[in-house]
Specification:
- Helices cover 73% and strands 10% of the residues.
- The protein is built from three helices and two strands, in the order E-E-H-H-H.
- Strands 1-2 form a two-stranded antiparallel ribbon.
- Helix 1 packs across helix 2 and helix 2 packs across helix 3.
- The chain is rod-shaped, with a radius of gyration of 35 Å.
- Keywords: Cell cycle, Cell division, Coiled coil, Cytoplasm, Septation.
- Its main location: cytoplasm.
Length: 146
């Protein structure tokens, strides 16, 4: 859907301009105020400049500022992407920790159920080995009953 274009009457350096665009009146009021302020500042610093020269200098300054902001935006987007990748890694690590903790809890339950509650589990590899042994024992029992 096309953006609704609006007419805005701006007074810049005592000249009337009709600007057509999608921006709000409040936005255009701020733009007009800023343009006038910067033109007045340029003219105060360099009183020998005529309005056209001041306007050109203002345009150059505005484009320079725009390029700087675009560079900053690109850097921020890059940092954002890096942070999102790090966040995904953190989530992945948290999920791994939860799986390891679940394995350790299940292994402790197996040890308690089999009367070996006094055995200490030193790491998740030992916990997985305990579960594997229990599953193997369960499969062997089912095979011998069947």
């Amino acid at each position: 859907m096309a953006t609704q274009k609006k007419r805005y009457k701006a007074i810049i350096d005592n000249q009337s301009y009709t600007i057509i665009g999608p921006e709000s009146t409040q936005h255009m009021d701020r733009v007009t105020k800023l343009v006038n302020a910067q033109l007045n500042e340029i003219k105060a610093i360099s009183p020998h400049m005529d309005t056209e020269q001041a306007a050109i200098l203002l345009a150059v300054n505005a484009i320079s500022d725009q390029l700087k902001k675009q560079e900053q935006l690109l850097l921020l987007k890059k940092k954002n992407d890096e942070l999102q990748q790090k966040a995904m890694k953190v989530v992945e690590l948290e999920n791994r920790i939860q799986r390891i903790e679940a394995i350790e809890v299940e292994a402790k339950e197996v040890l308690e159920r089999t009367g070996r509650a006094d055995k200490k589990i030193r790491n998740h590899v030992e916990a997985q080995q305990i579960l594997n042994e229990e599953r193997k024992r369960t499969i062997q029992q089912k095979a011998s009953q069947g």
